[in-house]
Recover the amino acids of this structure.
């Protein structure tokens, strides 16, 4: 059975399989803690496992962020260093290779604006290579970036625009930034997912329709995403599930008190919820009250992490200087 | 029993009482349709009825908006004319009286920004009375406006700021604009509520803490609100209620199949939902995906309606000219 | 001698040639007034004339706008109809041809944001052709649009991105929207220029570096621009010129009173001004105080004009409906 | 003779007096450099001197900022520390005294939005005193803040709103934040002025009409301002002055070559420029191209400086925690 409650996080999908006591062969998982920050790794190894977990074969790394509203400067720097390190490992590029960053999403829908916001804070250098001497450019790689907009605004599939640009720019690697949908509230704004499988159809807050990956673009595609919303259907399913759990606990396991709900799996709850709300729910999102502020802070953290990953030889202060 | 699911709309509260077959004495209700637009009137007449419906004694008028994304220019003009007319009736002011408009809410949380957005589009004239000749000002009333911000940003209760300004400006009437929370999704962005009872504590997206009314400000206080969010707790309660209804229908009324849920009232569902989600839900809101666009359109409609209500003698084109 | 004071408006360049009593062969000019709105046409016919006036060979049409802050709804509609009509004439496309609109400029520098702002208000239809039946789409053309960003933000020449997209989308015509620099203050926000020569290097508020025209893109390129800034160097040159004129008038033509300034041409004034300010002036712009509001209003007018030009068979209300 | 070219900076006014070899009695001036940052102090001691320099009697402290686009984190921290220290000295308040911060200016005109932007980043605590225990609040003072808007938007003099709030809140001190107009381009975004004389009529980008000072508000009023624009008239006057200087140098002092311009003082140049441009210039401003970015960076620096001045006992990390 596949996952019917939507999550863009491989770690959540993995946890749902585990909870449901599903077969986990073909999937490796590993948790660790570095500098007080939790890192979860999921490796999907077989097509059969990919279909079970609902994510393409590849590496998925989830870095837990400190609460952005409470974290000290030092804790945020630590998270930034960790994301940089994981990103460099996935990119695995020599320092002269060109990277094209794609900021996915709709900048006029706040929780979907993460990609464009990150792109606007990146250190962009590709155009300097024609203007500066070789000496001046030997310490950094060519980096370029676009925010292609979304289908409803452009009338052009994101994938078409990106392919057009990739064909002309010929980058060695593409890095996609996207806002994601999570299943549980406590992961919103609190997790960064990195993967080497690109963007799958249906992912992202706005539900991208076409894949952006090595097959479609011809170069490695790394994706970095942060959950900024939860599905309204998901939240009701979760509630339902919490309620039935609470009632089961109170009433004892075997009473018929709860009727059919007592035997329902979370997936069935989700199905019921989606069905009940189907006519209108699609136009609503569940998002933190202060999502404007959250996007500000997360996009800065993500942009810093990418800048440090792509310009390893530059100190933070040197990057600040270039960014002016 | 009082209403436990939160709604700022008297019309919704009235419908909930009706559905629950509650006592309606002390409450008058009237529906009509003008120019194709539905208008609902609720008059709360006794303290006892006020306590049952959860709204202070007074007049509540709900005007149904055409779908803002589909409406033609003419339909929007018709809605604007109707809101103006109802507003003028509530204000009941001779043309030389001063009106102070208060834009409540937090301008940096999009669904709470309705008040400040409306205020920024009003025709403001009070300061012209010291600059222009009497001839030039005889065709319009003095109008002034402030957006006082919210407690978390200012450290000052909104009521304190408004009282300070009222004491100096001495308006004849105060008009408060606020974003509201509705119970059902189809009312979000689709309804304007006018009332002559001011703003009650706990109303509004950001939950105002103190009342703004004739008692606290010393002059009549009219309020105009538009629902822009629904409570996350409410949405889950609604889902639960829909699900139980659906299951009842499928399973027949008398089977024990649904257990306790089959006998639960909506209020109990809401209670369960709130309880289950209590730890995190307070920080989340359920809002239309395109809330940025919605606030743009609604704030323009509301500002137009207020401008036409306050400057009856000026044509729309004359108001546009003044607004420049 | 070529024009040394910068203007992106062919009409201004033409007036400067006339004032300087320059040779006008190879240039045709025509003024008319329709519905109270002035239209100026300049046709540059020879390469030699193109070099004198500083604009490529082709048609330049300037439509004078009513003051946006004072105009009535009817006056704005009239301007909109006129711009639509001129645009349709330049496009000269059968109703099934695909148009790609390019919103040039930097959306985070307000006076340069016209292009992206216009694009966000266009009726986009190209993606509907794969989703709707032929019946449903027979009344409108495929329109798509991108805002490619600027070189400093993307690291990619705008021309590269546009060529990449043109190669994949294969439009029949490209329409570029750009914010321009004018020479005189009274044209800022008060004029729309249409031309069939595309965008020349050095044009636009941000000084585009590469041409976007039929030669570089392989399809006809129409450009629509509105001046939103004046050069700081230009404003000082103009002042200098006004001052010397005023002093000449006061002092009589032949006195040595004014020294060398009395014999200076505007170009020399501009040269002096640029030289004197050269070290810092490049980072400053001269712009209307209320430029945020101006961009709002102009982008709406321009987007309406384009929508009506591209969808001639749809009424304004039908376009509004589609835009939802 | 009074200063006719507009500057809100006492330091610039002082330099203009010095250049013009004016009488300086009643004015003390002192320059120093701390941690590589220049500080200029001007003390206006007599009414007669106040009239000459065009600023009320009191202390004016100008702190030179490092170039915000090039500064390292450490340089920005140093500037922040210095501004904090000077601000604390001017405030001279025991740690339990209440401060009311006023963010002056129009938030929808970018270069005038400094005040509201700063206010939105302050640590606000006054409302916590009713919610927290005495223990929890003993380490910080009550701070509150409002952004009252501008006369054209509210119809109410800023001074009226502020007085209304001061009367209810009864702060021990008022701190006004405002965007200023400078005379020379290189001071825009590069200087912070602190003073103990409040805001004088005519100061600020939007030209405040009434004073905010100890006389009008009844408590000490400290003002902090940053120049974000230069007058368009000023820029042309400066150019004229630079040109005449350059021409004098080239032509030798005594030739009649330059006519009357060679003997003109800067004030006369300004007068000429203002006169020549008078009809339109008032609606234009001269501002850095990247003013949006500049306001972002400066408002953060100013807010940090104020937070550290008002909460001396809290570390930067503790302030960050509270700000969440």
């Amino acid at each position: 059975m596949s996952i019917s409650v939507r999550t863009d996080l491989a770690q959540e999908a993995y946890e749902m399989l585990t909870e449901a006591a599903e077969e986990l062969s073909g999937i490796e998982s590993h948790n660790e803690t570095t500098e007080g920050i939790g890192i979860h790794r999921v490796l999907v190894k077989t097509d059969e496992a990919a279909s079970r977990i609902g994510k393409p074969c590849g590496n998925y790394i989830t870095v837990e962020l400190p609460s952005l509203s409470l974290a000290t400067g030092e804790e945020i720097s630590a998270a930034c260093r960790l994301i940089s390190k994981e990103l460099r490992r996935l990119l695995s590029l020599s320092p002269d290779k060109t990277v094209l960053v794609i900021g996915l999403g709709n900048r006029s829908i706040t929780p979907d604006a993460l990609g464009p916001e990150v792109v606007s804070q990146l250190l962009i250098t590709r155009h300097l290579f024609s203007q500066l001497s070789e000496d001046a450019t030997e310490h950094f790689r060519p980096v370029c970036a676009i925010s292609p907009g979304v289908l409803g605004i452009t009338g052009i599939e994101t994938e078409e625009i990106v392919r057009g640009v990739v064909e002309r720019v010929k980058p060695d690697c593409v890095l996609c930034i996207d806002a994601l949908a999570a299943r549980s509230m406590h992961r919103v704004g609190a997790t960064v997912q990195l993967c080497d499988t690109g963007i799958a159809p249906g992912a992202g807050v706005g539900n991208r329709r076409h894949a952006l990956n090595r097959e479609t673009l011809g170069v490695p595609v790394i994706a970095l995403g942060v959950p900024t919303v939860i599905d309204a259907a998901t939240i009701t399913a979760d509630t339902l599930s919490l309620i039935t759990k609470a009632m089961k606990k109170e009433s004892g396991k075997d009473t018929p008190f709860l009727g059919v709900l007592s035997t329902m799996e979370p997936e069935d709850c989700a199905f019921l919820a989606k069905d009940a709300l189907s006519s209108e729910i699609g136009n609503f999102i569940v998002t933190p009250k202060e999502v404007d502020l959250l996007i500000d802070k997360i996009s800065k953290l993500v942009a810093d992490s990418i800048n440090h990953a792509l310009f390893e030889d530059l100190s933070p202060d040197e990057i600040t200087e270039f960014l002016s």
User: Anything to note?
Assistant: The longest strand of chain C covers residues 173-182. The radius of gyration of chain C is 21 Å.
